[in-house]
Design brief:
By secondary structure, the protein is of the alpha/beta class. Helices cover about 30% and strands about 20% of the residues. The structure holds NADP nicotinamide-adenine-dinucleotide phosphate.
Length: about 375
């Protein structure tokens, strides 16, 4: 009898290296790796399909079973001109999840961006529900910012917060959670109308809010930066920042350009959670899918589906774009914590910013130390 599928995760790979590794898993151990040039040629022809089975354990003792479905969006085809073909890939991946009988599906990476969080754009769903996973992502981004500020003894109440990609689903959720805690907020994106509307909402709460479509023209210096723009590749140049700025890059792909000089800044990759109950993969693709320096780490967006499955709440917790509220963030964070899923230890491209992985969040926080002035 087939094993019931509690959850499915739909995602795609951020780099050609990771894409090659996923294909190697599907081809099995006896076939030679596909040469890099051939890979780029043939990759777009792969239809979305399940790559592995996943068991995710709650610290409460029970576990849920799911599948990871790769939509095989080529890492260099996230640009707008590929939008229609990529939406088709997400739809086909969703059809795989529905056919497998998944009860809840998380839409990782660009999957939810492409359909703008609107699961009505997906095929006939039957009993399957979809969540963008962005509420848990916001929870982990916000928690990461609070944690690094606490570790560095920074007063958030005196800080200027810049959000790049502020009008997006993740960006606006972060803005709503953090605006009350900082002195000033600067919102950046390309569409001025959407920026004005978010600024109006935030300043109604009495907060000083600036908007900017061009980061290079910013007149205020940011102390804390959250990068959550839907960029097709790591190309963001932040320009002028306050001394010892804190930068959270939660983009997938990453936002920050590797050529940006971020001296004296602390950079970390945000939006990541860690499961204390643990996950196992069949076939064992743990190292292929989880390229983090700590075990059992995953993006908030994919973890949200697993969290909801562990809780037995098969519902579209996060949908649409721009509706994430602090109350919903608190709610999903509490559900995740109940099952042992917390903010992952902080790290960046150079490695961990903390000394140890956590056992329990409370105890670990006391022992973890942020390395000063590390940059991507
Ligand atoms: N770490 C995680 O667990 C996790 C989870 C979910 C999502 N993400 C990542 O977070 C990012 C945002 O996701 P989302 O769902 O919030 O996407 P979204 O709703 O599509 O929002 C994207 C935001 O980026 C802005 N933007 C796009 N291009 C820009 C540019 N060149 N310069 C400045 N702003 C730009 C958009 O506004 P304009 O169009 O007006 O510019 C919008 O504000 C993506 O990279 C996504 O993959 C990460």
């Amino acid at each position: 009898m087939p094993i019931p599928i509690d959850f499915a995760l739909i995602a795609h790979q951020e780099s050609w290296r990771a894409a090659a590794d996923v294909l190697a898993v599907l081809r099995g151990p006896y076939l030679a790796p596909i040469p890099d040039d051939d890979l780029k040629e043939i990759f777009p022809w792969f239809p979305p399909r399940a790559v592995c089975h996943i068991d995710h354990r709650s610290v409460l003792g029970h576990s849920v079973h799911g599948i990871y479905i790769d939509s095989f969006i080529p890492p260099d085809r996230l640009a707008h001109k590929y939008r229609h073909e990529n939406i088709e890939r997400v739809r086909d991946a969703a059809a795989c999840a529905i056919k497998a009988g998944a009860r809840i599906v998380s839409l990782g990476g660009f999957s939810s961006i492409l359909i703008e969080g609107d699961s009505d754009l997906l095929p006939e769903k039957g009993e399957t529900v979809f969540t963008t996973g962005n509420t848990l992502t916001v929870a982990f981004v916000v928690k990461g910012i609070k944690k690094i500020c606490a570790l560095q003894g920074r007063d958030m109440g005196e800080a200027t917060l810049l959000i790049v990609g502020a009008t997006g689903d993740v960006g606006s959720g972060c803005a709503r959670c953090l605006a009350p805690l900082v002195k000033r907020v600067v919102l950046n994106a390309r569409s001025i109308d959407r920026l004005r509307s978010l600024a109006e909402e935030l300043s109604a709460g009495g907060k000083a809010v600036d908007i900017a479509t061009d980061l290079q023209q910013l007149s205020v210096q940011a102390d804390i930066v959250i990068c959550v723009a839907s960029l097709e590749s790591p190309s963001l140049l932040l320009g002028r920042l306050g001394p010892n700025a804190i930068i959270c890059d939660a983009g997938y792909p990453k936002n920050l350009s590797p050529v940006d000089v971020l001296e004296d800044c602390t950079v970390f990759f945000g939006g990541l959670g860690q499961s204390l109950g643990g996950m196992s993969f069949e076939p064992d693709v743990h190292r292929v899918l989880h390229r983090h320096p700590f075990p059992n780490v995953g993006q908030g967006c994919v973890m949200e589906g697993m969290v909801l499955a562990l809780e037995g709440r098969f519902e579209p917790f996060s949908q649409g774009r721009g509706f994430i509220t602090p109350e919903r963030v608190q709610e999903i964070e509490a559900i995740a914590a109940r099952h042992g899923i917390h903010l992952a230890p902080l790290y960046n491209a150079q490695g961990p910013l903390e000394e140890v992985a956590c056992e329990t969040e409370g105890s670990a926080d006391e022992r973890q130390i942020a390395a000063p002035g590390r940059a991507v």
